[in-house]
Amino acid sequence: MLAPHPETWLCTRPEGLFCKPGDFFVDPVRPVPRAIITHGHSDHARPDHGAVLATRETLAIMRARMGEDRAGRVQQEIAYGEALEINGVRVTLRPAGHVLGSAQVVMDWKGSRAVVSGDYKRRPDPTCAPFEPVPCDVFVTEATFALPVFRHPDPAEEIGKLLRSVALFPERTHVIGCYALGKAQRLISLLRESGWDRPVPLHGALMKLCRLYEELGVSLGPLEPATVANKALFVGNIVLAPPSAIQDRWARRLAEPVPCLASGWMRVRQRARQGGVELPLVISDHADWDELLDTCAEVQAPEIWITHGREEALIHALAQRGQRGRALHLVGLGDEEIEDEPGGGE
């Protein structure tokens, strides 16, 4: 008996991607009775679901951002590699390498396997578990940077560029716009790896999740609130803040601020100029063009479903490699590297 094709049991609905036999959604954008959440960014982790299944870290992040009462009426932790059967569907979570606790959802049903990757990156990151390729029949991928122009440089080289600028302008403050979940903690880790041992001043919107990372076992070194009382810390230092803060009144009280932004979109010079970014840092928590194609090849899936981003370019490139691409056009999944999250100050 042939295994059923995943398109017969995995479909899109207005709420999101739905597993029919399991009767659950993956990263639904509206409240649903049962949800599996890949990671804590708000375009994937929405409030007010009935039952929520996720890693311990993702549930902790959801509680920190939404409150205990909105992170899911029933919350169930599942560790990487642990198998759980839901109405005959075997569910396993594997690391996605995107942010702390991020996971791919592996679903096996009647000999057929689909993997929903959520968002992912392939570069080393000590603040989260690395991506694990899982062979499957259908691989659901993002396509945020699915154009050949997006080839991310070595993050260490970008940090080197930052530190050279700090040395060149010791009287100024470099203020880096970065996302509060994942990007801020990764930047701090990259700075520590480079030998930067000064306390890192943080905008208040970043402090809560940095503290949570430390509670969950990720060491970030000395951190300080970027307040007027600690103004002496700013001179010649590197301050982290939400992207929206680097050009507002908060940033103007710093010592001759150098506006920086850490994002894969900084590869596009026009975006940097439009945002008033003096020092763009091409540091992304998403896979670049080559990494997307390499990942699709590694998982050996004959069919690739694409959730958001540059679907057309990726579908064309996959066809040349013998893989069929399909755009899912899911509503509500966006790029957290551009927009500040409502209520999160990012």
UniProtKB/TrEMBL annotation:
An annotated Gene Ontology molecular function = ligase activity
| Keyword Membrane applies | no
Question: What EC number(s) would the UniProt record show?
Answer: 3.1.-.-
Which enzyme type, at the first EC level? hydrolase
Keywords, A to Z?
Answer: Exonuclease, Hydrolase, Ligase, Nuclease
InterPro entries reported for this sequence? MBL (IPR050698), RibonucZ/Hydroxyglut_hydro (IPR036866), Xnuc_lig_assoc (IPR026360)
Write down what this protein is called.
Answer: Ligase-associated DNA damage response exonuclease
